[in-house]
Structures are given as C-alpha cells and as structure tokens.
Amino acid sequence: MDVTKSNFRSVLEGIDDELEKASFIAIDTEFTGLNDGGSNKLSSLDTPAERYKKVLNGSSEFLVVQFGLSIFTFEKKVSKYVNKTYNFYVFPHTSMGGLCDKKFMSQASSLSFLATQGFDFNKLIKEGIPYLNLLEEEKVKLKLEKRNKFSNVDSKVPCHNNEISEIPPDQKGYVDHIVSKVTTFFESNGNDEEKSPAILEFQCSSLQSELIFSHVRTRYPNLLFVSAKKTCGGCTVTVKKAASSCNLEKESVDKKSLPAAEKPRIEDYMGFSEVVRKITNSGKLVVGHNMLLDLCHILGQFCEPLPEDYEEFKAMTNTFFPRVIDTKVMATTKPFRDLLPNSALGPLLKALLKAPFRNTEIVTAKDFPSYKDDSLKEHEAGYDAFVTGRCLIALTNYLGKLFYASHKAAAVHESSLIAPFYQKIYMMMVTDIPYMTLSGPDLEPSREHIFYVTFPKSWKLHDIFHLFSVHGTVRVDWTGDTSAFVTLHRKENCHFVLSAMNESTLPVGCSVISYETYVNSKHKNVASSQAAEVQEQEPPRKRSGPVMHSNSSALPSPKKSRRDSENPKLNKTQFAVSADWD
Amino acid sequence: MDVTKSNFRSVLEGIDDELEKASFIAIDTEFTGLNDGGSNKLSSLDTPAERYKKVLNGSSEFLVVQFGLSIFTFEKKVSKYVNKTYNFYVFPHTSMGGLCDKKFMSQASSLSFLATQGFDFNKLIKEGIPYLNLLEEEKVKLKLEKRNKFSNVDSKVPCHNNEISEIPPDQKGYVDHIVSKVTTFFESNGNDEEKSPAILEFQCSSLQSELIFSHVRTRYPNLLFVSAKKTCGGCTVTVKKAASSCNLEKESVDKKSLPAAEKPRIEDYMGFSEVVRKITNSGKLVVGHNMLLDLCHILGQFCEPLPEDYEEFKAMTNTFFPRVIDTKVMATTKPFRDLLPNSALGPLLKALLKAPFRNTEIVTAKDFPSYKDDSLKEHEAGYDAFVTGRCLIALTNYLGKLFYASHKAAAVHESSLIAPFYQKIYMMMVTDIPYMTLSGPDLEPSREHIFYVTFPKSWKLHDIFHLFSVHGTVRVDWTGDTSAFVTLHRKENCHFVLSAMNESTLPVGCSVISYETYVNSKHKNVASSQAAEVQEQEPPRKRSGPVMHSNSSALPSPKKSRRDSENPKLNKTQFAVSADWD
Q1: Which residues in chain B have Cβ-Cβ distances shorter than 8 Å to A338?
Q2: What is the pLDDT averaged over residues A218-232?
Q3: How far is B333 from chain A (nearest CA, A)?
Q4: CA dist., res. B348 & res. B340, Å (int)
Q5: Does B102 sit within 8 Å of A103, measured CB to CB?
Q6: What is the pLDDT at residue B560?
Q7: Looking at residue A73, what is its pLDDT?
Q8: B551: domain CATH number?
Q9: Of A51, A181, A294, B420, which is the most buried if we count CB atoms within 10 A?
Q10: Do B113 and A232 touch (CB under 8 A)?
C-alpha cells in the first residue's frame, strides 16, 4: 500500500495495533545516493570501524525517499503468515520557510536507477510525508521562539515629530499605489461583490509588506491583515475591512507572523518519524538485507544524528533495534553459503523458492498488495521489504528442518535457531570480516598475509604481480597512484615476504610493510593530530530508548523464545556465524 | 519547444544557424536550490565581492535542471521579432559508472516549488540531456586512460604449476555452477531456440564476472563475452559461442572493458555544454533577469569551474558573455524605477504591456510555443526567458521614445541607448549597491551611516531601536545573537553617533563601531590567517574565449551599433545607471 501525505494520518492511527500483533517486521529503504566516493570509497580491507566512518562521512548526506515496511503476523492455528506491506514516500518539509528547509545530496546514477525501476519523483516531491529527527525538532522549537528577535525590520519607535519608519525613496511610488488601492477599497460599498469586494489582495515583496503594515495601516486603522503568504520572490497579502474598530485586536493577524501565512504547531512536524518511533519502541524482531546503509539512514534521518564514534553507533543501534537480523549475513554463512551462490536479494528469493527450501504460506491482508512473484516491483522499498521477510522465513524453516526431525513451520520470531544471527550486519566486499557485530567485539582475523606496498607512479598491475610472483598469485587493492594493499592467496607464504623483500632486493622507489605495521603507523598519526587539535565535544546525547550495552557477551533474547532444552541434539556451533573460508 | 535526449541532436544541428541570425538571446534557468544558508545567507550590506563569495560557497553545489533559451530575430522589413524558445531539460550523466557520477545538492523547498509549477522530475531524470564542463571532460579522459591500471583484480601471472588465479573457496560453488551451465550451453545443438539458445545470460557480482572470465573461458576458448552490464549489486553477463576460434580476437569483448557495457567516446559526453559553447561564441547580446545565479551556474556547470577570486570571475564572465544585460537592473534604475513599482518578472511584464510602454510585435516561428500571455507557464525556464526578452524590447522602446522624436521600433541589439546597462548584474537586497559592475570597478558608496553593534544575548529589536532613538529611525540587520548592522535613515546624523556612544555612555556589554572600522578589522584577520596557512594554488586556467579586460573603462560595443552622432539631443547621463536614492 503506497502511503503519502493524503493517507498518512489514517495509516498512522492503525500502526500501533499492527505492530503489537506482528511476529516480525521487514524493512527496506531507497536513497538518493550511495556514497560520495573519494576517500569514502569502500575497500575490501575496511575494518568495521573504518567502514562505519566511510558510511558516516560519505553516505549520510543522501536521503531516504522511500521506506518499505512489511509486517508479518503468524497465525498459529493455520500455520500461515498474514502480511501487510506499506510503501511510504518520505520527503523533507517544504513549507516551513526559514524554520526548516533541508538541503540534501543526490547521486545522478542512483536517481536514474530508481527512475528506471518506475519510481515516481513527482509523487515523492508533491506528496512525500515530511519528518524531523529529534535534533531538528529541538532546533525548530528554538527558532519559533526566536522569530521575533530576528526579523529585520525598520524601527517603529516614533521620533520627535511623530513619524513612523521612513519609506525608502524607491518604494514611495509603490506605497502610494497601494494607498490608492486601499482608498478605493474603503470607498466601495454595497452588495455587488465585483464593485465592493470583501477582500483585497496584492503581490509585493517582504519589505513592501512591512511598509504596508506600518504605513498604510496607520492611515486606515480598520484595515485588517488576513494573511501574508510567501510566494516566489515575494508575498501575496490579503486584507479586509474590520467589522468595527473594537474587533481589531481580536481579528488582526499578529504582526509578528508576517510574512508567514500560518502559525505552525511543533506536533505536526514529526510526521514519518512517528512511524519509526513506533517500530523502534515495539521491540519486535526487525529484518533487513545488506542493511548497514538502511540502518544508518533510518537512525540519522528519523531518530537522532549519527555519532562520530563507532562504539557509540553500536550502542545506539542496539538501543533502537534490540533485535535485528540481516538476511545477507545468513545467506553467506554456513550452512547456506554452499547452497546459495548468489546472495543478492532477487536471486536469493528465487533460490529459496525451490528445494531444499520450504516456504510457509503467506496471505495478504485485505486492501494490501499481494506481490506474489511480482519481480516487476523490484527496488520498490515495500516489495523489497516483503521479499526480505520471505527470505527470512525460508531460511529459518531450513534451519528448523536441519535440527528437528519432524519440523512444522514455526514462527520465525519464536525460533532460537536464528539467535546466533542477531545484531550482525553485513559488510560488503570484506571477505575476512563479513559482518559487523553490534552486540560484542568485532571479528579480528589475522591479516598477516596482507601487505602495504608503495611503488613509482609508472607502475601498472603486472609490475605488482611480478614483484610478488614467487609467493604465488595475489589480489591487488589500489589505495592511490603509488600505493596498494596486496593480499596473498597462499596465506602460508606470508612469512617469507618481508625477509625476501627489503631495501636491497626491492626495486628503486618501492617499499613493502606488513598490514599491521601500516595500521599502527596510521593510528600514531591520528593520535598525534588529535592531540594537537583543540577538540570541542558535545556531551553524550541521552538515548530515548532502553539502555543496551554494546560489549555484552549475551545476545539479546527474543521476547517469546522457546528454550533449547527440549532437543539435546541441537548444536549451535554447527552453524555458528563464522568468517572462516574453510 | 521542450528539448530532451530524444530530440537534442536535431536541435543542436540547427542551433548554429539560429544563433547566427539572432538579434539577441534571452536566457533563464531553474535550479535544484538557491542557497545553503548559514554563513552564506545573503545580507543587505554585502559588497559585490562578498556576494560573489556567498554565491560561490553557498549556491554552486546546486544544479541547473532546466535551461530556457529564447532567440529573438528582428525582421526589419516588417518591424517584427521572430521568436524561437527552447526549454532544455538537463541532467548529469547517469551511465558512465566510475568515469563520472555527479553528486549534487537540492533544497527541499526549491524542488517543491518547481513541482507546484508543473515541473516534471521524472522527465528530467529519464530524459535530461547530459553535459560536462571542460574540467570534467579532462578528468574523464584521464580516467579512461588509467582504467587498466586501477582495476582491482586477481593476478593472472601463471605461477610455476601453471595455475591462473585461485578461486576463493566461497566462490567455488558458483564457478562450478556456471561451468555446468556453459557445458550444457555448448552441448546443445540444433535450430530450436529454446533447446539451443544463441546466447547465455547470467547474473553475478563483479568479482564473479572476473572469475568467469579467467576460469571458465580457459576451459572453453570458444566462449565469447558479448557484454557485461552493470546492474544494481552486480552484473548481467552475456556470452555466446564463437563461430570459429580464429574469430575470437576479432569478436571478443575487450577484457579491460568488463564490467562496463560499452566503450564510451569522449565526444559524446559534452552534450548540452555544446549549446552553451555556441551561445558564448556567438558574441550576441544575452539578456537575463536578476541573473547573477543564472550566470554563475551556467559558467560553472557548462563552461569551467568558477574561480575563487571575484576579479577573476568578472574577467571570466566578460570573456564568455561579452555583452550581457540584466533587465532587473534596467527596471530598478531611472527612468524606469518610478514607473515600475514591482520589478519581479511577472509583474514587470504586466506593467510593460500597458501605456506608456510600447511593445514590438513578436511572431512565433512555426513548431515553437507561442506563449502569448500564458502565465501558467511561469517558472518554466523557456517561458521566463521569453518574458525577459519581451521586457527588454519594451524597455528599449521606451528609451527610444524618450530620446527620439519620431521613434520607430528599432532592434534592441542596434540601440546604443541600452549600452549603459551592459555588464551590470543585479544584486538582490543591497540598496546602495544595486548591481555588480563586470566591466569596471564596482560602486563604492559611502557607508558612514552604518554601524556595527554588539550587545548582550538578551537584547531584542526594541532595545537596539531605543539605543539609536535620538538619531532617528534605523534599519537593523542581524549578523548573529549578539551583533547587528544598524543603518541610520537620517544619514546626516551619522557624525554624531560615535561621539554620543562610547564606553561611558553605552550600556554594559555593548559596543558600536563604524562600518569602515569593522571592515578593516575583518580584512586584517583574513590577511593574517592567509599568511599563516600554506596555500597551494593552481596556475591560472586559460580561458577558451577572447580575452577581455575587466578593468577597461570602455564598455564593450555591440557588433552592429548605430552611432549617437545623428542625434545631438541624446544625453546618456540622463539615465546613467546610478545607485543614488534621489
């Protein structure tokens, strides 16, 4: 179901109930861009902290423009899931003027990709649901309070000859023109709307609206300002005649609100952020696919600004999403890894719809889209969230089949078999650290077989291959014109590299150091530049959810979990999430 | 006429001819945003150099998405203009992958405003004409050359046991799967397309496409890679059987181009920049309305990156636009200032369609839109350019009427009466410096009546009014919580201010200095911080047009100008462009 400004309120009213009944929630988002490149370009050697930094610095200026929410509710009696999928169009506020006017980045190729998938940008911009995160909400409140102080106006303090503010010479003609219009307006009488209109409207600039208020009104105290709406390049001012002068105070538009049309209520501004708040407060299992970017955007755009510190990010995510699963982590881990050659969402679903996988039937609720195998909807956030949920069901069922002799389809959220996958978020491209571990320390594999190499600018790929040829084949990851990481395929040869390659044996202009030496020297540089700078740090922000400890070794337990005690054969380590290749 | 990718080539072919015949060219652009606010927010006290800096830093990350080009050609025999108006949709390249993938800013309110005016964003993104400025073109060329060096691949140097690159263990299953598919593909024979397809297509990741190329191809030398198209999250690889092995070299897709689909030609990339190049090379009079942002965006986006230095910007603009007029400068200068109360484009045209102004008839060329008074098209770039041209015609005719007893409508481009307006670009909000002077030194009015004031955070507007009340009414321009510029309406009182306001008479926490003192101290601070920094500067870029000197006191003369000698009554100083209020 597409959700825009027009039906948002009614959807919001029903969401609490839906979330309360939900077994689990699948999410997906579409953004205006992925990464701004440059130093934030992803590397296959990123550590989790480095990856987070790159996402924070290189991706967070892009915007989520579509949020897919797919709610799966297990009906035990019939062993089926009922599904309701929402496709929210979200767009920043556009009529708050100086209070809030978001600027955001877009990547041309991302917009083009969405357009080819049928995304409707006109609908987004005209009908997208606005939102504010908590920090933006605070700023808007503050600005509303300060509005009076900061209006740039001419003084109205009467000077000794009783003049109000002077009219700049280049505006005199205009003010006379308006006075003349108002005079005619006041002189007209009778019931003929054409000859005696009830209201008078005129176009002017913001400055002119101030002058009119000051000067024309003093000549016509019975002139009431009904509204002053900002238009491109100016205002449309609407005035009428007051019924009597004693009603003036009551009826008059507050001068301080010119030229804004309406006085906004802060409660109306949170918009779509309310939905996210309800999701994060529900405590339900949330599932996504390759979801690091989704999480970062959702947190930063609808909850609170992302922290600089990676550990703080982990704590924040655990707070807002105490139970989260990434189906790409599941699909690329044993036992699935060997059964599923392609873990991209579309091919993944295709494979999971066939043997040996088993699917629980999904019934679409009335008035909601039943996608079936509608791959025409691929890359619509709602559809992708739905597919993600389906994948989770099939993957969970398979684990059930592996471990329980006669396994009936059990609700995903009740299965302790997926607990090892909680709080693990997929890391693209990094073969030896395939996921971030939110609920504890990250994987720290040995990188003894990786070297940092510098060489002359003229060197090409084959020159590096040749340099390492005696140690077997390698993978090269460029870090610039004259440097690269080189990874040995034959890890066991790593002990020979540095002894074989030293100043006397290396070609001129080359150097080779271990990955560890490189990282240590980088940390030294960062530490000394941090010591030299004066750093102003904000006090840590209080989180608005329950406190979670990111270093806890205990995985968060599902609210309605079934204990393992009934089946002594269960061996969780058989499919412990691991990064080992073998 | 709307111009998109589909009809761009044919329009481009005809443009040289149109520009050759043109009398003058009107332009207008629509952008994704205006200003990013903060320290780049416009002030009514900006000098031209400060204003340029704010536009450079606060506006240039936004994008022109629509370019209106309205060509007016005067038919002398019938004393009419023939008009052709083009409405170009422009959008960055979206299928050049790593060669060029522009990231740009948008302002939510600007997009919303365009949408309400009927702008079609889906059309923009799908059909917008791409472009590159000169610097981007150079970078793309460089990247194309370097492509080989920077592909991250496994080595293909055979080691002593003749293996090619090793297959990572987690990819073994996938490679076996593809080998199996290809085996079936090669074994199938006959004419039945279903049983013996001509091509084989499969989805994979970039890494997998490299592995396939290395490993599968070695087993099947007759396997030809037709294409490898990048899709979201991976590639679609298409292969076929070579007719015979001797055709392999000829038919095979160059390995180096994987995973990109086509080998791009640099000539195809310039796109819409070609149109701008033709305009700037035409030497024709170019007219815009309130056109500073238009100029900066056009130069930066389609010509060359904008320089940091303001004087360099003036020289650059004069080079690319040797004859430019801003109708907002005309409309806000005598003799027009007193006749035209509202110089916004829409109201301006409305006023110019009535007496005492006179319009030359405009005939729309066949197949082009005849807007008439179609104000429904307002804020479509083509329409706004057309309106701008109409305004110029009416304004020029009026000058002709003023100075020549029996004035026939003369072509705008032949009228020396508008020469005083050349190279003057409107400056919004700044009453004492209403325009930038590109062709000479800028206006430097006295600002003796302006003061820089600091005060406690608790102060409100009336506190400042009160402080200055003895000197008459004032205008306050906030620069922050605790500072503002204060402008006396009664300039003559300026000499009393500083003597009246000193440490002993001012309230606690307040200070008042002259504008001049403030500016001098700001320059001192900038100079000392520049001396402390190590600045790396690129050598000045060569301009690609004729050299113009920005300090020349002679205004550039129109190519086909009529001399003033025939009418001794002409007195240019009567309407010399001036900033004096009186």
Answers
A1: 173
A2: 57
A3: 9
A4: 7
A5: no
A6: 29
A7: 96
A8: 3.30.70.330
A9: A294
A10: yes
Please check whether residues A217 and A304 belong to one and the same domain: no
pLDDT tens for B420-450 read 999 999 999 998 999 999 999 999 999 999 9
DSSP class per residue in A247-297: GHHHHSPPGGGTT-SS---GGGG-BTHHHHHHHHHH--EEEESS-HHHHHH
Q: What is the DSSP string of B266-289?
A: GGGG-BTHHHHHHHHHH--EEEES
- Structural domain ending residue among the three candidates B437, B466, B499: B437
Q: Which domain holds residue B287?
A: 2-131+271-437
ipTM: 0.74
* End-to-end Cα distance, chain B: 44
Q: Of the candidates A45, A480, A40, which has an alpha carbon nearest to the alpha carbon of residue B146?
A: A480
Question: CB B473 to CB A120 under 8 A?
Answer: no
Same domain, A127 and A142: no
Query: Quick one: pLDDT at residue B371?
Result: 76
- Under an 8 A CB cutoff, do A122 and B125 touch? no
CB half-sphere exposure, A543, CA atoms < 13 A: 21
Statement to judge: residues A217 and A127 lie in one domain:
no
The Cα B254–Cα B250 span in angstroms is 10
Q: What per-residue confidence (pLDDT) applies to B169?
A: 56
Q: What CATH number did the domain enclosing B250 receive?
A: 3.30.1370.50
Nearest CA in chain B to A332: B170
* pLDDT-wise least confident of A421-430, A562-571, B307-316, B328-337: A562-571
The C-alpha of A162 sits at a distance from chain B's nearest C-alpha, in angstroms, of 11
Q: Say how many CA atoms lie within 13 Å of A153 toward its Cβ.
A: 27
The average pLDDT across A47-71 equals 94
pLDDT confidence tier of residue A111, bands split at 50, 70 and 90: very high
In a domain, A27, yes or no: yes
Least confident of A56-70, B50-64, B281-295, B497-511: B497-511
pLDDT of residue A240: 65
pTM over 0.80: no
The answer on pLDDT for A261 being more than 80 is no
- The number of C-alpha atoms within 13 Å of B158 and in the hemisphere containing its C-beta is 6
pLDDT at A299: 96
Q: Which of residues 84-113 of A touch B (CB under 8 A)?
A: 91-95, 97, 101-109, 111-113
Contacts with A, B 140-169, CB within 8 Å: 148-157, 159, 163-166, 168-169
Q: What is the pLDDT of residues B308-348, one digit of tens each?
A: 999 999 999 999 999 999 999 999 998 999 999 899 999 99
Q: Give dist(CA B62, CA A104) in Å, integer.
A: 10
CA distance B443 to chain A (A): 18
Identify residue B4 by its one-letter amino acid code: T
Do B414 and B298 share a domain, yes or no?
yes
* Same domain? A162 vs A247: yes
Residues A257 and A275 in one domain: no
Check: CB of residue A237 under 8 Å from CB of residue A220.
no
Is A169's CB within 8 Å of B582's CB? Answer: yes
Q: Indicate the number of domains in chain B.
A: 3
Indicate the SS3 state at residue A201.
strand
Helix (H) or strand (E) segment spanning residue B298: helix B292-298
Q: Based on the domain organization, do A103 and A69 belong to the same domain?
A: yes
CATH of the domain at B107: 3.30.420.10
Q: What is the mean pLDDT of residues A485-496?
A: 90
Which residue, among A556, A67, A49, has the nearest Cα to A318 in the 3D structure? A556
**pLDDT (0 to 100) of residue A533:** 63
A368 versus B22: the higher-pLDDT residue is B22
Put simply, the chain B residues between 467 and 496 with a CB less than 8 A from any chain A CB are 468-469, 472-478, 489
Which residue type occupies B406?
S
- Nearest C-alpha of chain B: how many angstroms from A235? 11
Name the residue facing A469 among B157, B166, B431 (closest C-beta): B157
% residues pLDDT > 90 (chain A): 47
